């Protein structure tokens, strides 16, 4: 016997019947997200500093034209790309006596140009906060020397130094716990809704009507319910 359709009431009672299981499954998912974040994911730290580009041969009191602004932006973007080039990464690695390979230095560096300026923001990400700061400060020192040999135009200089980061930027514990909570709720509720859909048990008169397409003429009252009522009535008399 197959049920013809499932109603919202069926879904509601199924979720209510298995409420404790839904809660337990959700707790398991949240605990799993916490364990994954705390014990399986390596924390990453980020430090940053700024570098600037000074245009050569320009009178500071002279009015800057649009063409010069475009040229400045192009120079700044060129330096942004060159900051992650192999010559710079190799120079940083050599300055650190091989503590970090040149290929790893390249993967640690990200550079962006502040819109409308010739300031380059450089960030360095690593699993060791102390090492991230060392790489960043060595980069700010050697990059102007190495890139000064390239015919780019302008002069690259360091504006500030990098500090040792205190807090990791990843993983995000609160975000992972939220994901675990949502996954636990969605998967557990979906599971028990599926149970309700596949359940062919006759619970109400409506189930018989849906299954056999015939009206119910009568029903037999629960003997257990009558017995409990009589017992309560006797105890109340005493």
Detailed description of the structure:
- The chain is of the alpha+beta class and 238 residues long.
- The protein contains 9 helices and 4 strands; from the N terminus they run ααβαααββαβααα.
- It has helices spanning 8-17, 19-40, 66-82, 86-95, 102-108, 129-147, 173-198, 205-212, 223-237; strands at residues 45-54, 109-113, 119-126, 155-158.
- It has a 4-stranded antiparallel beta sheet.
- Helix 4 packs across helix 5.
- It is elongated, with a radius of gyration of 35 Å.
- It starts with 7 loop residues before the first helix and ends with a helix.
- 21% of the residues are buried.
- The mean pLDDT is 84.
List the helices and strands and how they pair.
Layout: H1 8-17, H2 19-40, E1 45-54, H3 66-82, H4 86-95, H5 102-108, E2 109-113, E3 119-126, H6 129-147, E4 155-158, H7 173-198, H8 205-212, H9 223-237
Antiparallel strand pairs: 1-3, 1-4, 2-3
Helix pairs in contact: 1-7, 2-7, 4-5, 4-6
Shape: elongated
Order of helices and strands: HHEHHHEEHEHHH
Strand content: 5-15%
How many strands, what sense, and barrel or not for the largest sheet? Answer: 4 strands, antiparallel
In DSSP terms (H or I, runs of 4 or more residues), the helix count works out at 9
Mean pLDDT: 84
Q: What is the radius of gyration?
A: 35 Å
Structural class: alpha+beta
| Proportion of residues in helical segments | 55-70%
Task: Please give the order of strands in the largest beta sheet.
Answer: 2-3-1-4
Q: What is the number of E strands? A: 4
Note the gap between the termini: 48 Å
**Runs with pLDDT <50, length 5+?**
none
Assembly type of the shown chains?
Answer: single chain
